[in-house]
Amino acid sequence: MAKFNENFLELKESYLFSEVAKRVSTYKENHPEADVIRLGIGDVTLPLGRTVIEAMHSAADEMGMSETFRGYGPEQGYDFLRQAIAVHYRSFGVELDEDEIFVSDGAKSDTGNITDLFSRDNTVLIPDPVYPVYVDTNTMNGRNIVYINGTAENDFLPMPDRNVHADIIYICSPNNPTGACYNREQLREWVDYALENDAVILFDSAYETFVSDDSLPHSIYEIEGAKSCAVEFCSLSKTAGFTGTRCGYTIVPKFITSVSSEGVTMSLNKMWNRRQCTKFNGVPYVIQRAAAAVFTDEGQKETKAMTSLYMENARIISDTLSELGIRFTGGINSPYIWFECPFGMNSWEFFDYLLEKAEVVGTPGAGFGKNGDNWFRLTAFNDRKNTEEAMKRLKALFA
Ligand code: PLP
Fold first, then answer.
1. Which of 122, 262, 322, 375 is most deeply packed, by most CB within 10 A?
2. Domain that holds residue 382
3. Tell me: the pLDDT tens digits for 46-70?
4. 325 pLDDT band (50/70/90 cuts)?
């Protein structure tokens, strides 16, 4: 009989969003007239931009004509998209070679798939609270995970501990769920720590588009030395509303190497290329054309307009929390607002309370790690009217 991967026995039941959905649907069954506002799940609400849709339509037309039809494309992505991504990085002052850029179907797959490149015998450093994919994918591979605490005391931006050795380090900035964003000095410390430990940083920049403060980095490659130790994952999901369209990109610089237990050195770029060519057949041509349209001047204007709408919601939420004297992070360079549960409640208690008394849905922090037990996440992904109404209801709870 086929034996299963016993590491799956170590996975914690991932019940966060299913439990949220269950509680909301039970509430709605019992209160059919309820006007529930959802500020919970991190999914975009605005439709794709006009430029993106036009590019998608004309690419679809190309697929319908024998002269322009395309079959399998390059596993790494078409040149036109890799070039557009390289130009985008240049706007942060980062120079990349096109063969350091790998187009994919999104950052979730790539942050999970990258674990294929590393031996089981690595110590993995993961912040808590965190986007759960990093923990689960390493648990599936049976790796030793060491957690670093994100707390109110460090503004949910944990820094390296020189007494702890790590081989692989996950950093997500701007962060999901806390909305906190590392500055250059802090990222420099992480890069220095990685170089001292011969470690690899896996940097998730899925929310880079929300960075509005010019002093904050959009990419880890803005930090000197990062090209020798960091892989970066980004996505058009939140940048341009591609959560259902699916397109992302991963940067694996040619300078990064890793060693085997026998001392053999390998290039991570070559390994990732080999991995992708073996297990992935590329992103659909139509989607890559749509993705390239995001990086045109018109596309950038459209995505900036979407981001501003979301960030206006984030401001409305942050202002309300400030007015109520509730501690929070995020909401400035991130669509997430992470706040301390009021009334001495834990995050699930506050979830039920907010649903029952205000008919507003958020995400309990406990779903992102133990340091989230008393914290709560709201997202800016809704429209302004609903956000204002939700905040009015939140304020009423304190009246
Ligand atoms: N990384 C982080 C931190 C996220 O929050 C998400 C989605 O919520 C992703 C990656 C996944 O992005 P994608 O839709 O590109 O798979």
1. 375
2. 7-47+299-396
3. 999 999 999 999 999 999 999 999 9
4. very high
Spatial distance between the Cα atoms of 299 and 315, rounded to a whole number of angstroms: 24
Specify the number of domains making up the chain: 2
Contacts of 306 (CB under 8 A, 6+ apart): 44, 46, 49, 240, 241
pLDDT at 399: 84
Ligand 1 pocket mutation, candidates 45, 108, 110, 113, criterion most atoms within 8 A of CB:
108
Question: Are the beta carbons of 320 and 395 closer than 8 angstroms?
Answer: yes
The verdict on 91 and 226 lying in the same domain is yes
Beta bridge partners of 38: 361
The tokens describing 341, both together, are: 């549960």
- Of 231, 273, 268, 278, which is closest to residue 251 (Cα–Cα)? 231
Which is more confidently placed, 17 or 141? 141
Residues touching ligand 1 (Cβ under 6 Å) are 42, 106-108, 131, 172, 176, 204, 206, 235, 237, 243, 248
Q: What is the dihedral of CA 306, 308, 312, 317, to 10 degrees?
A: 70
Looking at the domain assignment, is residue 60 inside a domain?
Answer: yes
Instruction: Report whether 154 contacts 375 (CB < 8 A).
Output: no
